[in-house]
Design goal:
InterPro entries: AB_hydrolase_fold, Hydrolase_4, KH_dom-like_a/b, OsmC/Ohr_fam, OsmC/Ohrsf
Pfam family, one: OsmC
Helix content: 25-40%
Protein name: Osmotically inducible protein C
Strand order of the largest sheet: 1-2-4-3-5-6-9-10
Oligomer: single chain
CATH superfamily of the largest domain: Alpha/Beta hydrolase fold, catalytic domain
CATH topology of the largest domain: Rossmann fold
Number of helices: 11
Radius of gyration: 28 Å
Distance between the termini: 37 Å
Length: 404
């Protein structure tokens, strides 16, 4: 995954801080926005881990701090639920202008309720996913405890949440009471996925039921059995991200992978606008090759020499395992570490004056996990040099080229 810091302006001219998570080896097929939980930030573990899981499935994900939180400008005391919804709309405008308009909204807890509201206001959104969302924003009032009455009587009060002090004004409470998530769900015509844990002690699963019954089809529910509300566990968060990505594929158009055909074993295809990012068909398998960013590539795939070194490593590992199976020896695992470079030949004289004396060199280290004795291990080192790719690299080869 690639991640970079970004900033954009909200409806009131305040700078909001975010991060844009992108797939490691391709351009995003779609963009998503993540709305974090109540008083959380973009860097909260659940937000970060779900976003990374979505990025691994080809999404570009914008996660940002709502006004007055994290690294974003503004005073939290002047914000409310409606301002969170407005921030999501500003985030969508930013993506549309600088990258590509978002098609997916994801929200956690109160952020899930905000995503339902914003989903009906952003034209490009085709799907909304909520995680542990309350069926009504007013649900967060219980987190204010005894200070709720102080806020209503005196207009504002300081409340300690998650070890931090927050100032809440009466307008925040009034705004919560004015917005019904159930009503927003009734007015939402985009696809909706509701994820909720039956063990959620903060927002009971009854909330998911109320949202589900209010929403139109297409709507889906996935139980997060065993998860807690904040989704701290990394594996649970990654699971949520992959579930959302798989579900969204049914409702969000994704470009069809261009297929390249050949009667040869391998074909490579490179368009002018793609720099060095090259499509490969290796037998029945598709992948990409590329060059590092430092030489003008996008680093979306291995370099040609890394592919060559990979062939040597894979062939070596296969050959060793094949030999041990035939000999009925048992090795639990074999690792073949290979690097390619051009180095001077060992017998080179005056190397510095003769650059052509450099030869192609593969440095290979083999790690074998087994109970084999030293004699057997030495035999496997000999077998490694007999792998077909190793022999090919040592033999005289020819490349016959014709115009197709």
């Amino acid at each position: 995954m690639r991640s970079s810091k970004i900033n954009f302006t909200n409806a009131h001219g305040e700078i909001l801080a975010g991060r844009l998570d992108l797939p490691a080896n391709q351009d995003p097929h779609n963009f998503a926005i993540f709305a974090h939980c109540f008083t959380c930030t973009k860097d909260f573990s659940a937000v970060r881990n779900v976003s990374r899981a979505l990025a691994s499935q080809g999404f570009g994900v914008l996660r940002f701090d709502f006004t007055g939180l994290g690294d974003s400008d503004g005073d939290f005391a002047d914000t409310n639920f409606s301002s969170n919804v407005d921030d999501l709309i500003s985030a969508a405008d930013f993506l549309a202008k600088e990258y590509k308009a978002p098609s997916l909204l994801v929200g956690h807890s109160l952020g899930g309720a905000a995503a339902i509201f914003a989903g009906g206001k952003i034209d490009t959104i085709k799907a909304v996913a909520t995680i542990g969302a309350p069926s009504n924003p007013v649900h967060v009032q219980k987190q204010l405890g005894s200070q709720l009455s102080v806020i209503k009587d005196k207009g504002q009060a300081n409340v300690k949440l998650a070890g931090r002090d927050f100032t809440f004004k009466k307008q925040f409470i009034d705004n919560l009471e004015e917005n019904s998530c159930v009503e927003a769900a009734r007015n939402l015509h985009e696809a909706l996925l509701i994820l909720h844990s039956p063990q959620d002690a903060t927002v009971s699963i009854k909330n998911a039921e109320e949202i589900y019954h209010a929403a139109h089809h297409p709507k889906s529910f996935v139980t997060l059995d065993g998860s807690e509300h904040l989704l701290i566990d990394k594996e649970n968060a990654a699971y949520v991200g992959k579930i959302i990505a798989g579900w969204a594929a049914r409702y969000i158009p994704q470009p069809v992978q261009e297929t390249i055909k050949t009667t040869f074993q391998v074909v490579a295809s490179l368009d002018e606008e793609d720099g060095f990012t090259t499509l490969l068909k290796l037998g029945n398998h598709h992948m990409k090759a590329d060059e590092p960013v430092r030489v003008g590539g996008n680093d979306y795939g291995p370099t040609p020499y890394e592919l060559l070194a990979g062939s040597l490593s894979a062939c070596t590992a296969m050959t060793i395992q094949m030999y041990t199976k035939r000999k009925k020896w048992v090795i639990e695992n074999v690792e073949v570490h290979t690097s390619y470079s051009k180095t001077h030949a060992q017998d080179c004289v005056a190397c510095e004056d003769n650059p052509s004396a450099k030869i192609d060199t593969f440095h290979r280290e083999i790690k074998i996990t087994s109970d084999l004795d030293e004699k057997q291990l030495n035999r496997l080192l000999q077998i490694a040099d007999k792998c077909p790719v190793h022999k090919t690299l040592h033999s005289e080869t020819q490349v016959i080229t014709t115009l197709r």
